[in-house]
Amino acid sequence: MCGTCGCESGGGVVIDLEERLLSRNDHLAAHNREWLASVDVRAYNLMSSPGSGKTTLLERTVRELDVPCSVVEGDQETTFDADRIRAAGVPAVQVNTGAGCHLDAVMVRSALAELDPPAGSLVFIENVGNLVCPALFDLGETARVVIVSVTEGEDKPLKYPHLLRTGDVVLLNKVDLLPYVDFSVDRFLHCLRQINPHAPVLPVSARTGEGLPDFYAWLRTAGTPAGRR
What we know:
Blueprint: H1 12-38, E1 42-48, H2 54-64, E2 69-75, H3 80-87, E3 92-96, H4 105-115, E4 122-126, E5 143-149, H5 156-159, H6 161-165, E6 169-173, H7 185-195, E7 201-203, H8 212-221
Parallel strand pairs: 1-4, 1-5, 2-3, 2-4, 5-6, 6-7
Helix pairs in contact: 1-4
């Protein structure tokens, strides 16, 4: 069982524990958000399933954005992704969660202290690849970026509604593969709009760069702290 999100139901005791943990996390996340605002730094929480292309997208983004960036990398094990981001030329802190399936506000606060991002910069938080647990935990981010690839099912929004519902922007990645996979963009959009009517949807390819200027433009203007839904 995941001790922080109660993946196995154990009755009222588990629910009460979950509520207390989430309340404490939300309190710490609020402090993170206040601190980020005080130093004029915007933070973006990137969430997706494993293999959606988050790290490749992030590598290209930090290389091409004309804004100072740093990265918090979340994985259960290894430093592979942080090594890739550092090779792209920006500071990165790896946070390994062990058996944990998500980052939380405490982990992010420690990583921010180590990164010490400069005023006017952006911090990208690459969450652990998971479509369930990360949705529950506010990290103090400015906004949430949800990434879905065309190699996944069009019905992902209905299967994992809470995560897709909390997205402030949805990136549909790997659109360069659309000619080769059985994926209907129209059906995906239909499913998404049932649970998130307002988030912009940006078709992108981290491999070719298609659509990424639209994402970069969104990043430059998405400065209002997100309220968790």
